[in-house]
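Weekly puzzle thread! Below is a chain. First person to post its structure in token form gets bragging rights.
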Amino acid sequence: MSTFAAKASDTKTDALWCPTGHSHDGIATRTLGFWLYMLSDAMIFTALFAAYVVLDHTFNAAGGPTIGDVSHPLYAYGETVLIFSSVLAYGFAMMALKRGNQTGVIAGIGAALLIGVLFLFADAHEIALLFSQGATPERSGFLSAFFALVFYHALHVVVGVFWMLIMLVQVAYAGFTDKVVYRLLNLRLFWHFQAVIWVFMFTFLYLRGLIV
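Winning reply:
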């Protein structure tokens, strides 16, 4: 056993990366399964974006607010900064995981969680503002498609935040066991995925409001 592996075992890090050995990798197998789930999730987002593109027309606004009325690019830019700051913090947690640094993982996930919560507050504030102006999902087909994307992405952020909260507890009490490590890796994929989706939302839902 290498020095790193021995150290990892002593500090509850018995399931970390191993530079040698080519035996069956259970963590990689579980991660592949999660990739398949995300492909199905991506298909749902694709359908929602397709519906939005079709309904993003003045006719489908039914005389109500259009994209130029409901999009706030500068505000959304601030949300973008929050999203990618959270992804960056989680990236630092993954670097700490590779070093077997339990404190670093907890700190990184904790920071990512807090920034994710800030994003949710910002998103909720924007939605409340639109609702107060009469821009609600039932107002028109366009707004239904708009809020479907906003709510579905927000749901992913909520799931990610709760997932991180659970992982904080598991890392603190169980260390880096096989199950904990693959959950951390899957959470990394999930958190990056929602950030990529946000890039498309920022482009199609918010930046387009500057053009139309």
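Puzzle host: Confirmed. Bonus trivia for everyone else. The chain is about 80% helix and 0% strand.
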